[in-house]
């Protein structure tokens, strides 16, 4: 029986001109394998017009209009989040090639691309399923994608004074946050905005969410870890009568009186991992845990 060629959709960062050699390696590798390659339109325009790369793609797509076996994200974690938002409930596994700096999600280095694809074709990769959360606006309208792989944050606008966020978990009152904002993070996003605001690192298998305040007015307010099956209800008051909702960094303005309900989504995001990758070793490497920073 003849095996059908694998299909790949490629997303990339149009602002990394000096790093386009990696995509050429990937395109050459996939062409040798007889793979069908589809490239996101903005990235295709960047590669062909700005970088003058001959991209032999089976097609170019916009937004969510692709049906493939795997997605390749070429960039940092921001590009990965963009790809994940486009994948949505499709269930397509994503391979993240790190063209940025830190790279918790995009963790395949440019020099490891061919080895990673070898492992993929040999069936030696692992597929991790990561929780997605969603937000609904009661009394308001969310114009964009309501799903987040990393986090959903409620934030004050610009130089406005702090906001008040009345928070309930599964219908039970938790606290009225007086702060610049509140982050609801998944375990995947715990090493992102959550971590920079003093929130805990949560291992992916823990089935947990965390509520982390941003610059709270009271020093005795601390992050709270809850089960990822919980429903979180937020009622926001602001002197400016509006606030921001940031969904994996995509911000929307909401008016006061709009109730937000955050819960786990019905779908997950699948991430391709190499079998030799371990979460704690990634933490030590990326965050330099255990490194002696004292002068010698």
From TrEMBL:
The keyword Membrane does not apply. Its cofactor is a divalent metal cation. It is an enzyme of class 2 (transferase). Its main location: cytoplasm. The active site is at residue 77. It catalyses: NAD(+) + ATP = ADP + NADP(+) + H(+). GO terms for cellular component: cytoplasm. One of its GO terms (molecular function) is ATP binding. InterPro entries: ATP-NAD_kinase_N, ATP-NAD_kinase_PpnK-typ_C, NAD/diacylglycerol_kinase_sf, NADK. GO terms for biological process: NAD+ metabolic process; NADP+ biosynthetic process. It is found in: Cytoplasm. Keywords: ATP-binding, Cytoplasm, Kinase, NAD, NADP, Nucleotide-binding, Transferase. NAD(+) binds at residues 77-78, 82, 150-151, 180, 191-196, 215. Its EC number is 2.7.1.23. Belongs to the NAD kinase family. Involved in the regulation of the intracellular balance of NAD and NADP, and is a key enzyme in the biosynthesis of NADP. Catalyzes specifically the phosphorylation on 2'-hydroxyl of the adenosine moiety of NAD to yield NADP. This is NAD kinase. The lineage of its organism: Bacteria, Pseudomonadati, Bacteroidota, Bacteroidia, Bacteroidales.
């Amino acid at each position: 029986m003849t095996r059908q060629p694998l299909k790949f959709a490629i997303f990339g960062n149009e602002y990394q001109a000096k790093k386009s050699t990696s995509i050429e390696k990937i395109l050459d590798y996939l062409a040798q394998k007889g793979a069908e390659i589809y490239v996101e339109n903005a990235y295709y325009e960047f590669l062909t017009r700005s970088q003058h790369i001959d991209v032999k793609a089976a097609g170019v797509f916009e937004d969510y209009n692709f049906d493939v076996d795997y997605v390749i994200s070429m960039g940092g974690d921001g590009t990965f989040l963009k790809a994940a938002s486009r994948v949505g409930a499709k269930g397509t596994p994503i391979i993240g090639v790190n063209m940025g700096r830190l790279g918790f999600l995009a963790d395949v280095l440019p020099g490891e691309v061919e080895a990673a694809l070898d492992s993929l074709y040999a069936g030696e990769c692992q597929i991790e399923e990561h929780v997605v959360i969603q937000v609904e606006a009661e009394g308001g309208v969310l114009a964009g994608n309501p799903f987040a792989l990393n986090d959903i944050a409620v934030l004050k606008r610009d130089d406005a004074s702090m906001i008040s966020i009345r928070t309930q978990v599964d219908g039970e009152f938790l606290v009225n946050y007086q702060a610049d904002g509140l982050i609801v993070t998944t375990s995947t996003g715990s090493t992102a905005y959550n971590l920079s605001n003093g929130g805990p690192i949560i291992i992916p298998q823990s089935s947990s969410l965390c509520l982390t305040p941003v610059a709270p007015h009271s020093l005795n307010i601390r992050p709270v870890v809850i089960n990822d099956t919980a429903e979180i209800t937020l009622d926001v008051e602001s002197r400016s009568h509006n606030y921001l909702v940031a969904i994996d960094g995509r911000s929307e303005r909401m008016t006061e009186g709009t109730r937000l309900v955050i819960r786990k989504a019905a779908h997950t995001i699948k991430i391709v991992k190499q079998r030799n990758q371990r979460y704690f070793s990634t933490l030590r490497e990326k965050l330099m845990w255990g490194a002696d920073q004292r002068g010698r």
